[in-house]
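Re-run requested by the PI after the first attempt was lost when the workstation crashed. Everything re-entered from the original request form. Ligand of interest: S-adenosylmethionine.
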Amino acid sequence: MDKPIGWGASVRHNSEDGVAGLRHDGLPSCAALPGTVAPFHARQFADDVFEIRCHVRPLASGFGASLSRHPGIGGGGSCAVIPKESRRAARACVRDSYEMHARACAPDNFYAQVKHTVAGTPVSPEQIAMIVQSVRSGLSLEAADRVLDLCCGNGALTTEFFAACGGGLGVDFCETLITVANRHFVRRPQEAFRLQDVVDYARNADDTAGFTKAVCHGGFQYLPPADAQELLELLRQRFVEVKRVFLGNLPDKRRIDAFFGDRDRVAGIENDSASPLGIWRTEDEIHSLSAKTGWTATILPMNARYYAAHYRYDVLLKRR
Ligand SMILES: C[S@@+](CC[C@H](N)C(=O)[O-])C[C@H]1O[C@@H](n2cnc3c(N)ncnc32)[C@H](O)[C@@H]1O
């Protein structure tokens, strides 16, 4: 069955067992029968696709019990709504892992909080200076620019970008990191940090005018593929004055062995946005994603002394 069987008003993930809760009154046209599997689109989360699996076994409590009373399901059966290709669930997984990590770090250990570390130790100020320099020069930051920093983390790098221009906005969905950003890294009234998922922000923001450059350093790889594509499309369409976008620190699929070496790795890890390093892409994949979304990509050489230069690269996007 490849047609959605209904539209739900409310779907809630239960992170423990991957089963989502669902208000059965949101499923007026549910036609699933016990033993069938069907995709289900949640109206609230247009970017999620769930599978409804109908079982003959009634679930004991909660939404399962209430669903089993639904006339469309009937027969005492029950339903599990399982995230199949859930972009939101994948993003939530990344957010939770950054949240846990940031909380475990000392409040002033800024570069450990955003994982600029080697074997757990924060990298040197020289290494950070290389990142700052690559973004500033890639974007050709000038005093008149306003920068949108997507996946800005705790703002420790953002403040260096803002210092080279007229300020801007940093967006990140990790509450601990945005709290640090607001506490330590707002230097001028024209600088701000906002707690939000970057895809939600790009979809809904009403302050899109005025940004002239955008950066996503060390964050783009954590977006599920459909989100990565949508984000680039939204930047192209809704942020009309943004002329350049810097995608930084992307893991290079062609050089994945240089990172893992002999260490075991989970099959398919390079395609999993919720894995520790996110999605690994080849330069060709970045070129084709950019072209599809209205951008021209240039792969930027990294400083050979940069600690991750052997398996990462930077990209500059310009409007096609
Ligand atoms: C490696 S850190 C990089 C932080 C900062 N840009 C830097 O380079 O120091 C990755 C950041 O991406 C953020 N992130 C990942 N996916 C996101 C999303 N969908 N919306 C907002 N932030 C996201 C995480 O919370 C985390 O702060």
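Saved to the shared folder this time. The chain has two domains: 7-86, 105-319.
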